[in-house]
Write a sequence for this structure.
């Protein structure tokens, strides 16, 4: 298996633009997680899905952020409009059971908002 | 008080020494504890999990948990330069959240 796939790997955009991050989980994994990592706040869970349904989005910072999972093999995290404080590395992870022991992280998307 | 705290780095140890990484947490009812290793520019990878008080050993790694003191640690024996990374502590809280600590940077000097 190729593991969790994220695209793009790097994104540079200007403040106010829409940004869409993409994730393909490991086949057969029913859980998908979106994380954000910054120097100031560390690694934070933004939202997670089980069987394509959002279960907990309490970590989503504000209405500018939205996440979807239209099918078992694809998810997006959208930021609209983007702001410089959104600059971070965004990780997608998937797991079989929802437990961290079976969770695998993707390589991350490094986002820079100018 | 932050929910999960780790000793501030960077931590430097000579090759072959024992590296000791510490983590404290605030939710007294937390039940699950994890250690991740993250190389610079890479994603976190799980190296240890522990659920019960005491020690859990896996190769050169030993996780230690003391729930009464709300303390979990990771010992790395015979440290190697390849162990140089940031180590993240993660705690599964009683309110069904996993909280990550800020990480401790470890440098193993050849």
């Amino acid at each position: 298996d190729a593991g969790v796939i994220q695209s793009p790997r790097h994104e540079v955009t200007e403040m106010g633009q829409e940004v869409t991050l993409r994730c393909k989980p490991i086949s057969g994994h029913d859980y998908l997680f979106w994380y954000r990592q910054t120097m100031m706040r560390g690694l934070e869970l933004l939202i997670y899905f089980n069987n394509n349904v959002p279960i907990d989005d309490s970590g989503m910072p504000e209405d500018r952020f939205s996440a979807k999972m239209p099918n078992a093999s694809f998810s997006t995290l959208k930021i609209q409009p983007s702001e410089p404080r959104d600059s971070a590395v965004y990780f997608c992870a998937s797991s079989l059971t929802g437990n961290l022991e079976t969770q695998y992280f993707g390589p991350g998307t490094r986002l820079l908002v100018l | 008080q932050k929910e999960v705290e780790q000793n501030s780095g960077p931590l430097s140890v000579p090759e072959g020494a024992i590296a000791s990484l510490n983590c404290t947490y605030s939710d007294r009812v937390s039940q699950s504890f994890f250690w991740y290793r993250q190389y610079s520019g890479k994603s976190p990878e799980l190296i240890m999990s522990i659920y019960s008080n005491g020690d859990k050993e896996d190769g050169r790694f030993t996780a230690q948990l003391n729930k009464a003191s709300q303390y979990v640690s990771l010992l790395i024996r015979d440290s190697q330069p390849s162990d140089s990374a940031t180590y993240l502590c993660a705690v599964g809280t009683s309110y069904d959240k996993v909280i990550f600590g800020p990480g401790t940077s470890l440098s193993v000097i050849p």
User: Anything to note?
Assistant: The first strand of chain B starts at residue 4 and ends at 6. DSSP finds no helices and eleven strands in chain B. The mean pLDDT of chain B is 93. The CA atoms of residues 10 and 59 of chain B lie 24 Å apart.
